[in-house]
C-alpha cells in the first residue's frame, strides 16, 4: 500500500508515492505559485492525481514550509508563501477525498531520517539542517516533538552569542547566523577576499584541501557544535543528524562538529552521549517523511 508525500516549499512542490519501507516509486516536481494559496491547492491535487496511476494512495502527507498549529490542521503563516491562518488540512481533504496529514517540512525530513535514514535504529534523535538557515526536528521516544503551540523544533533560533548578529527572527546571536550554509558563504567570501564566491566553488576548495576554506568551515562547525551542546543538555538524544546542503561535505563537517561538541559538553567521557552523523535521505526526505506520517495516521482499515 502506498501513501503520497507532498513537500511544499517556497519555490517548488515535490511529490511522490512511498511504500511502508520508505521507498519512493514515483516522483514529480512543479514550481510553487507562492502568492496564490488556492493555486497551490490546485497544483497539489493535479500532482496527486497524476502520481496515483495504477497505485491508489491510501492517504496524503504534506510537508509545508510553514508554522502549523498544534492540531496540524491550520497554517499560522509561512515566511515565503502567502498563507495566513489557512485551513490547509480541511481544504486538501475536501479536494482529494482522502485523509491528509500535515507537518512542518523540517519535521517531515527529520522523521524520514529517523524512520529510514541516519537515525533509523534510535529511539530519540535531534536533526539540524545547515542550509539557508538552520532547521531542525526532535524525536523523543519515537514521537515528533510538536510543542504547546505547534512550533517546536525551531532549533536554528537558540541563542549561542548573546548580543550577536541580528537574525531574521528579530533576535541577536541565533545559531543559524553562525552555523548555516548562508553563514559559511558569508564568512568564506570575507576571509578569502572573494565577494562573488559561489557555493560550488567553495565545495571545490574544501575538497581540494584549501586551508583557508577549511578554517572557515571549522569555525562554522564549531558554532554548530556549541549549539548541539545546548540541545543535547535538554533533549538527551541517541543520535544527532546533520542535514542540509553543507552536510554534503560529509566527514569534513561531521568530524569538526563532533570535536566541538566534545570540547563543550561537560563530563563527555563519563556518560553516554549521542553520535553525530550526516543525513542520508537527501532531497527526498520531506516527501518520504510526510508520506510515512500519513501512513501511520490514516484511519484503521483505510
Could you explain the architecture of this structure?
The protein is α/β, with parallel strands linked by helices. It has 2 domains: 3-108 and 283-297, Nucleotidyltransferase, domain 5 (2-Layer Sandwich); 121-280, Nucleotidyltransferase, domain 5, CATH 3.30.420. It is built from 9 helices and 13 strands. It has helices at residues 37-52, 88-96, 105-116, 176-179, 181-191, 199-207, 211-235, 251-264, 285-297; strands spanning 3-8, 12-18, 24-31, 60-64, 67-68, 75-77, 84-86, 100-104, 125-130, 134-140, 143-144, 239-243, 275-278. The strands form 3 sheets. The chain has a 5-stranded mixed sheet. Strands 11-10-9-12-13 form a 5-stranded mixed sheet, sandwiched between helices. The protein starts with a strand and ends in a 5-residue tail after the last helix.
